[in-house]
Structure formats: structure tokens, C-alpha cells
Design brief:
The chain is an alpha/beta fold. Helices cover 44% and strands 15% of the residues.
Amino acid sequence: MPPITDVREISNLAYGFIASKVLFAALNARIFELLAQGPRPLAVLERETGIAGNRLDTLLTACTSLGLIERGADGYRNAPASQQYLVVASPMYFGDYFRFQIDRQIYPLLENLDEALRGTAPATFYSLMANAEEADYFSRAQHTGSLGPAAVVAKQVDLAGATRLLDVAGGSGLLPGDALQSAWPGGQDAVLLSYLLSAVAGEAIPRLGRLAYDALRPGGQLLIHDFFVDDDHQGPRAAALWFIASLFNPDAVSLTPGSVTSTLEASGFTNVTVRHVIPGITRLAIARKPA
């Protein structure tokens, strides 16, 4: 991204958190659900949400200014993207990811970012998982957030003939364990590590590479889906910002295609390729254990 030249661009960054909270508040107030069946005037939404008209009007005005909803003569209606991604009945619903993981967990955590930079933050993001309720929220949110990338990854990988795939640190999986301490079952046709490398200390990444290598049969594939920044560390913006959350693990590192490729090749993998999954945010590294 080119360097900014206008003070208004700085202001947009400084005030950006307000827009995020408007989105989260609208989700929690079920605004998009209520508008899913068609337009509604303010008075109807006031009755259905139980929010006083003056305060609801302020929220709806903010949502309209952000393009989340539209206002017409017959009332408010969802914007096309809101109808597609923020309504529970939609097969592409993404709202729970924003509500449970971003708003409830990551947003409050970032209040301690200054401490995280100095390695003195009181908690890590994953320490929330010690609380059963928070772990449930995380798993539900992550499941929702992973549906889209999973569909893209499935189209990018040739698993013809594969019968065994090991998903390590799958979050909502049925077999508990610590990826760095538990034994990995061997003879796998494929091993998937999704959002795992960005969640561990940098020094642990080579160990994960070796564990994956040992768990695969000859000719098997390793699939790494995660946030990646470019090798020149100039972006992309969305991926770079996501790595800020990993700062609450004081030994975490930003991933690049070059660093991951070098680590996998040092573990014995060959034919390493890195492809885009969510443009500007996540990528997929594919490596093969020699036959």
C-alpha cells in the first residue's frame, strides 16, 4: 500500500474501531435478521428490537453510512452483502464469526496491545480457551469463519486416492491433545495445519514440520493454511493486521511464503508451492513427502 499523504487518512485509521463496533452492535441487535424478509420502518424496528427510537435511529444512520443497510421510502433494508453474509438463514452466513470471536474475544484483547508488544500482556488469545464457555464461542465462531476457506482449499488440492487426512488443531475435533506434545497417528495421506503456525512460537514451527513429515506416508501431502504476509514484509494489509493478534503469544512470528518454504524443505518436503486462499489474508502452502 502506498504511503499515506493526507491527515484524513490518519483520522480514518484512528476512528475505524467505531465502525467495527457499529457492525457488532447491529448483529447483536438482530438488525440484519429483522430486515432479511424485507424493508422495515424505524417504528417497527423499535418495537422488535426493544431499543428506544432515538438511539436506534443513531445506530441505523451509522449502518446506512457504512453501506450495511439502505434507507428508502418504505423503511430500511439490508445491503446485498449484508443479506448474503449477515443473515443466519443464508448458507454463506458469517455473522457468528464476527460476534463471538472478533467482538467478544479479539477486540477486548487488543486493549492490551501495548503490553503485548513488550511481552507483558496479562493473557494470550488462546488462554481464553481454558474457560469452557469461551472455548464454545471460539469453536462456533471458527467453524463459521472456516467454511469459506475450506471450500476454496478443497478446490485447490488434489486428494484423489487419499483415504486418511489428519487435521491437527482442528478446534472442534473430537480427539483432544497438544499438537506439540501429543503423538500424531502415522500413515496419513494428507496432514492439514490450518491457523496453527501463526498460533505457536516461531521456534516451534520446525518441530511441526517434522511431526507432519513423520505422520505422512511416502508421497503424502502437507497442507498449511494460514495468514501470510509478503516476503518483503510490506503487506498485504489485512494479513499484516491479523498477525497483530498473534503478538499476545510473545514468541510468535509473521509467516511469509519464503520462510515457510525454507522450513518445510529443511524438514525433507519437496515441491513446495504457496497459493492464495482468501486474497490478501490467507494462503495455502502445499508440500509433498518424497515417495
